[in-house]
Amino acid sequence: MSRAFETFAPAKLNLCLYVGPVRGDGLHEIGSLFVPLSLADRLTVSEADGDGVIVAGIEAPDLTARALAALRAAGWAHDPIRIEVEKVIPLAAGLGGGSADAAAVLRLARGDLPPERIAALARSLGADVSSQLDPRFCLVAGAGEEVEPLPRPDPFAVVLIPDPEGLPTPAVYAEADRLGTTRSREELAAARERVVAAARAGAHPLEYAPLLVNDLAPAALSLRPSIGIALGLLAEVGAPVALVTGSGPTAVGVFADRDAAVAAAAELRADGHEAIVASSVEGL
Predict the structure, then answer these.
(1) Could you give the number of structural domains in the chain?
(2) Active-site option among 101, 128, 163, 215
(3) What beta strand segments (E) does 150-263 contain?
């Protein structure tokens, strides 16, 4: 590596998230449509005397550092590198920022480590890392490790209203269990079948809007009632669909195109609310 270079780690949006029963390993079965967004962290990789990871705003070692350590443990013999992460994706926001950064680090070893080894490392690092190795529209099943690519949907845009304080994913799942808002195995399978049939046509997501449901929303709202205010704001500015993304606490409005999303975000900002516009993308 003769000079520094940049790579990007796009956020993922859960267009839907169906949550089933707990597996033997303590994780929940899910069914979710993942779509990468134009909102992305920037990773600058350069030569160094020793490996190091710097993530703005995070002092303790994070998933990015764990990914680099995992590559070394797997035998990646590349010269030492320094990785600086410029965080653009809000932290603990249900947008997969940490997993996206970890996947970007694992991609550095392509061509040096076998693909199946990199895939195994992704599974070991976390449920969302596998789906972000190759950011694309996909159905994610299992506990996140089963990834089925789907035809690229018609382009769309979203408006995100982040929360100033993140929500821990385990706490949201635990609250969903307490509330009893998860699905049976049969209900989960049926829901996945319906949404995959719609998504395989490559249609605009708003054409199957009734299927864009997040089963973790009641739990996230229980833990953070202010999410309901954000969802209401998105509805007021005309979002055809407003939902919680991932385990929250970010609220997202899905719009037909970027122009509509930009107009809605401008209206929100004029009233003093934070609003982020992002578009659906495919690949890096």
Answers:
(1) 1
(2) 128
(3) 157-161, 241-244, 251-255
